[in-house]
């Protein structure tokens, strides 16, 4: 006898019970609960981060955790793999703070170190997403030892492959030290990077501090300078990462991508009008500033300017760009801030990006408009002498092509520091120009006349007479031209000059670099000890923290 068919209501009840059972099964799964916790904190899951970072369908996981491992096992706290960004492979390691706050155990550290070594073997860039509370206290002193190994491995990779850190959560201890050892740091609002967390401070000292006060994105991007970019969302951080890698080579052994199309659109910016108006305004005691980004945008290929460290030490502007399709580093003095004077912080900022340029084959374009180093007690305390000396020592050690242009003022030791003829001792791959409207001297007209012609005794007419005489006799560019310190350049010829000069310089550099690589292979075979020493520093540009 046939069974009685179920009614519509009975069938609906069965379907509902099945759905509820399935929902309960999903809800109680550890991965679903972890995702829910991340979303409740305003964070993305590891899988969602992968989708943001890489071209669709290109990510492959490496060293995947066994399903048999405990849900809180150290290997589960880190996802490693490789995917494409704009069609180019990039290795990635992402800490999963949904598991034990991403604390690093021995197995977590071993997995990260293994992946860093793989990235170097693959000769591809490495991105690390830090969301870790530091060493796992349950592993005792061994967890400190594994962090020491992580630090050492980052040092080994510095200057060999580009390394980018994204800080997407609260990072303390080793989870804060390690990111600043990489080339570039992107911090997302709400993330933290500090020696220790607020809870430890509260227990140890009784002081109440917030994560932002301890080491938030604003603090590090604007005050300490230990973060190079600050963004609001992970999506924005991913877009920045993809753009940053697009200017860099896969490793020190290859060259950055070179664009084919680089023609400028529209009417060229009238740079002569800008510098002439500023000089006239200065004589009339009016505002004589300009935004040096106007000069940068006029010099580089359209839509290629990508500023770096933009909110920190703002008397210097630095960033990545392209000229004639070639990826370059641009460094410029910003007269809107302190008249463009160099500070301890801006010296460190410029030094750091110079080391990045030298490590990854990026020619350096320097637009000089500097009245000097800031001479204040606060700057002396801030180590302006040693930071300035660090900059003075960096330009002469650059292997990459360099072109400098004095666009207005270049006075004193700061002129020496901002790429001058005397720094070009290492190779012939350099050019130094000065606008015909510019000024190069030991001092500007404010202080120079006193030491040249004596005091004006408070007489305004005498002061003006001395200043006019000083301008004619000492701020005349013909002195610099005559001594061969710079070559004359008209302001309107800035971009045509760079477009004409840079490609042959860069071609010569590529040929020189290839000879070095060939020589290094011979050294590897015949002088293995010397090769080891060269590998550990002489032929790579270590990117030191500030």
Overall description:
This protein has 546 residues and is an alpha/beta fold. The chain is built from 21 helices and 17 strands. Strand 10 (306-308) and strand 11 form a beta hairpin. Helix 4 (106-122) runs parallel beside helix 5, helix 5 (141-157) runs parallel beside helix 6 and helix 13 (344-359) packs parallel to helix 15. The longest helix has 33 residues, at 494-526. It is elongated.
Keywords, please?
alpha/beta; 45% helix; eight-stranded mixed sheet; 546 residues; disordered C terminus
Q: In percent terms, what proportion of residues is strand?
A: 15-25%
Q: Pick out the low-confidence regions.
A: 538-546
* Backbone structural class: alpha/beta
N- and C-termini, Cα separation: 86 Å
Helical fraction: 40-55%
Mean pLDDT: 88
Largest sheet: 8 strands, mixed
Shape: elongated
Report the C-alpha radius of gyration, rounded: 28 Å
Number of helices: 21
Count of strand segments: 17
């Amino acid at each position: 006898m046939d069974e009685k068919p179920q009614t519509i209501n009975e069938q609906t009840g069965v379907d509902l019970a099945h759905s509820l059972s399935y929902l309960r099964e999903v809800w109680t799964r550890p991965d679903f609960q972890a995702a829910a916790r991340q979303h409740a904190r305003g964070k993305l899951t590891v899988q969602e981060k992968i989708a943001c970072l890489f071209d669709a369908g290109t990510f492959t996981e490496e060293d995947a955790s066994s399903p048999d491992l405990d849900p809180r096992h150290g290997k589960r706290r880190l996802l490693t793999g490789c995917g494409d960004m704009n069609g180019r492979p990039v290795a990635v390691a992402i800490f999963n703070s949904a598991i034990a706050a991403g604390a690093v155990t021995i197995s977590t550290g071993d997995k990260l170190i293994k992946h860093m070594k793989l990235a170097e073997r693959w000769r591809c860039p490495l991105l690390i997403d830090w969301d870790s509370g530091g060493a796992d206290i349950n592993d005792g002193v061994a967890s400190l030892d594994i962090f020491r190994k992580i630090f050492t491995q980052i040092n080994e990779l510095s200057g060999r492959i580009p390394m980018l850190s994204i800080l997407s959560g609260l990072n303390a201890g080793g989870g804060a030290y390690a990111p600043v050892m990489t080339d570039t740091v992107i911090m997302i609002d709400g993330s933290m990077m500090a020696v220790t967390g607020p809870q430890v401070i509260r227990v140890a000292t009784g002081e109440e501090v917030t994560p932002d006060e301890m080491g938030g994105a604003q603090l590090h991007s604007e005050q300490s300078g230990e973060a190079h970019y600050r963004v609001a969302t992970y999506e924005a951080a991913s877009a920045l990462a993809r753009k940053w890698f697009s200017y860099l080579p896969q490793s020190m052994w290859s060259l950055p991508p070179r664009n084919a199309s680089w023609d400028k659109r529209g009417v060229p910016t009238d740079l002569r009008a800008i510098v002439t108006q500023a000089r006239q305004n200065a004589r009339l005691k009016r505002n004589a500033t300009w935004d040096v980004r106007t000069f940068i945008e006029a010099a580089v290929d359209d839509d290629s300017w990508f500023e770096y460290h933009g909110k920190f030490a703002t008397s210097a502007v630095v960033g990545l760009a392209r000229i004639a399709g070639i990826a370059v580093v641009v460094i410029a003095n910003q007269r809107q801030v302190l008249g463009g004077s160099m500070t301890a912080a801006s010296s460190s900022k410029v030094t750091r990006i110079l080391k990045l340029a030298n490590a990854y084959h990026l020619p350096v374009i320097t637009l000089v408009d500097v009245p000097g180093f800031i001479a204040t007690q606060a700057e002396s305390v801030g180590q302006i002498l040693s930071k300035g000396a660090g900059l003075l020592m960096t330009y002469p050690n650059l292997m990459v092509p360099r072109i400098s242009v004095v666009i207005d003022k270049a006075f004193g030791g700061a002129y020496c520091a901002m790429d001058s003829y005397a720094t070009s001792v290492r190779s012939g791959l350099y050019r130094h120009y000065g606008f015909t409207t510019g000024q190069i001297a030991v001092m500007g007209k404010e202080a120079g006349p006193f030491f040249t012609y004596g005091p004006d005794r408070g007489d305004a007419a005498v002061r003006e007479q001395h200043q006019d005489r000083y301008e004619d006799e000492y701020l005349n560019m013909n002195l610099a031209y005559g001594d061969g310190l710079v070559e004359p350049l008209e302001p309107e010829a800035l971009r045509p000059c760079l477009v004409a000069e840079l490609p042959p310089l860069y071609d010569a550099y590529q040929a020189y670099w290839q000879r070095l690589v060939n020589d290094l292979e011979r050294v590897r075979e015949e002088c293995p000890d010397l090769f080891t020493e060269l590998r550990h520093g002489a032929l790579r540009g270590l990117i030191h923290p500030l």
